[in-house]
Design goal:
Elements: E1 2-6, E2 9-15, E3 18-20, E4 28-34, E5 38-40, E6 45-46, E7 51-53, E8 67-69, E9 72-74, E10 79-91, E11 98-105, E12 112-119, E13 126-138, E14 145-152, E15 157-159, E16 169-176
Antiparallel strand pairs: 1-2, 2-3, 4-7, 4-16, 5-15, 6-14, 8-9, 9-14, 10-13, 10-15, 10-16, 11-12, 11-14
Length: 178
Amino acid sequence: TIKFATGGVERMSITNSGISGITAGITMVQSWRLSSSFSVPSSNTFITSNLEAADSYSYGQIGSSMTESSGVFTFPSTGIYLIQFIGQHTSSTQINWSQTEIHYTENNSSFDPTAYGYANLSDGNAYQSSYCQFLFDVTDTSTHKIKFGCRGSNSNSTLVGHTNQNNTTFQFTKLGDT
C-alpha cells in the first residue's frame, strides 16, 4: 500500500484493490431526444411523451442512465449535473418566438422554472434553434428531478422530433460529486 497525504490528511492511496482518493472525471453523460414533433402551445406546457434515449448512429454514453416517467427525469446518482436543452423549432407562419424551458424540483412535487431558451421565427417557413442550460446540485435522487417545457407567442410553432436523429435534444452530464 502506498499512501499520499497533505497536512496530515490522507488524499490518495494505491492498494492491490485499486486507487482511492482520485476523482475519475466525467462519470456519466447521456443524450435524450424528442422522438416525434411536438406542437408548441401558447401557454406553458410540459413535454410528457415521445422522449427517448438517443440510440442510433454509433451513439455512446458514459455511466448509468437517466430514467424518465411522464416527462420527469430521475438522476442515477447524486452529484453536480449540467443539463442542456437544445430545441429545434419550425413554423410555417410568422411568429415572434418559441421558447424552451428547464424546470426543477427539490421536493419531488412542485417544479420551478430555472432556464429559458428562445427561437425567433419571424420569417415564417424557417427553422431556428434555442438553447438553455442549468447546473443542478442533485443531493437526493428521490427528490431532485428535472422536466422540460415549452411555449410560443402563439400556437403555430413546432419542436422538431425524430426517432432516428437528434433534432430536439436533452443532454445530461455529471460533472462531479456533490
